[in-house]
From TrEMBL, chains A, B, C:
<protein>
    <submittedName>
        <fullName>Anthranilate 1,2-dioxygenase</fullName>
    </submittedName>
</protein>
<dbReference type="Pfam" id="PF13577">
    <property type="entry name" value="SnoaL_4"/>
</dbReference>
<dbReference type="InterPro" id="IPR037401">
    <property type="entry name" value="SnoaL-like"/>
</dbReference>
<feature type="domain" description="SnoaL-like">
    <location>
        <begin position="10"/>
        <end position="139"/>
    </location>
</feature>
<dbReference type="GO" id="GO:0051213">
    <property type="term" value="F:dioxygenase activity"/>
</dbReference>
<dbReference type="InterPro" id="IPR017640">
    <property type="entry name" value="Anthranilate_1-2-diOase_ssu"/>
</dbReference>
<dbReference type="InterPro" id="IPR000391">
    <property type="entry name" value="Rng_hydr_dOase-bsu"/>
</dbReference>
<comment type="similarity">
    <text>Belongs to the bacterial ring-hydroxylating dioxygenase beta subunit family.</text>
</comment>
<keyword id="KW-0560">Oxidoreductase</keyword>
<dbReference type="InterPro" id="IPR032710">
    <property type="entry name" value="NTF2-like_dom_sf"/>
</dbReference>
<keyword id="KW-0223">Dioxygenase</keyword>
Length: 157, 157, 157
């Protein structure tokens, strides 16, 4: 029963994460992280070799908020819509208020020309913690398989 | 606990919706809606501008049933198989028996030539109500991102 | 409440199945099946005609383990990463310890050149049984829509 409640709460967090990213509610995205969070986007080759070097690294919530502001102000990239699909949620409790979590993701992008295609696939490796506001990401590593990844001004994954 | 039960029931409804569409059980599809339902397929550009004008509109369950009969009789379109993937379920209770619900979808199509590809991406905006038979769609808006959408005799999304 | 618990347990089994396949933990894959399991990969055309003839058939857990050993030893195929997405889980209890289960799947593949695309779509038809170690697959039929399927030394689906 407790396992089921945890599973429900973590799925709900992931659903909310996907929902804010895909429905143009980016301003709500940083609030899903703790103040002292880490967020990184890393190619699979590096992650598999233990190298945490990626194309983006934020080490607190403020940097995530700044990133959203930049994205809103810099409308120089082509309009597009993302749909994040997730699967295979894997939960490893660390202590009563901390969980390590993994999942697959696939992002389907629709560009201004109206074509939809697989844009990126990969996995999430997260550490989530229980806070007064509910479960929040303390660490999120987005590890992408796909090597053709837009690095410039990309919206969060 | 109550939130979890609601989440379970709405996910089950969505799973059943996807299952009947993708496994050639179209005759069961209308029964997932109320008698007085609304079902529409609308391009994202229109929905974002507040225009509910789409490529299809049904305003009761009977129209959905007629549509299924038409599809079964008119075998003039190429055989294909759909697989609907969904994510990011977002639940907003309205009252004890009514919920507003959003979700992403991606449809992968396999055509007669055996090729599988992303056919359509978009979001669902639903109103579901509790009935004697369980939760049913009172309103479902399918808002598609992809502009190359087959409009003629298309199977439901 | 009991239905919800069953739904949770079967989703968890499916999530674990996807997680071991997609994260290079193939050695854990056979343990998700019973000793006397059946596992087959079958084209949709055959399945729809009631012909269980497919491109692969294993009728016990040992054959699944042998298969994993073969895959590990025979590194002659191009490196690639899979991400299995699933949807539409459909549960039919048979008795207290046996369930028939169906679901959709879509596999996105990223090849050595860094390109990600839909590799295969289809459905699972499973029989799962309750064991001392939890729910396990007694039978799993992978029924693929896509006709361009690699048959030689393919990793499990």
């Amino acid at each position: 029963m407790e396992r089921m409640a945890l599973w429900f709460e973590l799925h709900s967090l992931q659903e909310r994460y996907v929902s804010v990213l895909d429905n143009d509610r980016l301003e709500e995205w940083p609030a899903l992280f703790t103040e002292d969070c880490e967020y990184g986007i890393i190619p699979k080759e590096n992650a598999d070799m233990g190298l945490p070097v990626g194309i983006m690294w934020c080490n607190n919530q403020r940097m995530l908020r700044d990133r959203v502001v930049s994205l809103r102000n810099a409308n120089i990239f082509e309009a597009h819509t993302y749909r994040h699909m997730t699967s295979g949620l894997d939960i490893t409790p660390v202590d009563a208020d901390t969980v390590e979590m993994k999942a697959n993701y696939v992002v389907v992008q629709t560009r201004a020309n109206g074509e939809s295609q697989v844009y990126q696939a990969g996995r999430y490796e997260d550490r989530v913690v229980r806070t007064a506001e509910g479960w929040r990401y303390q660490k999120k590593r987005v590890i992408y398989d796909t090597s053709r990844v837009q690095t410039l001004l990309a919206t969060p994954v």
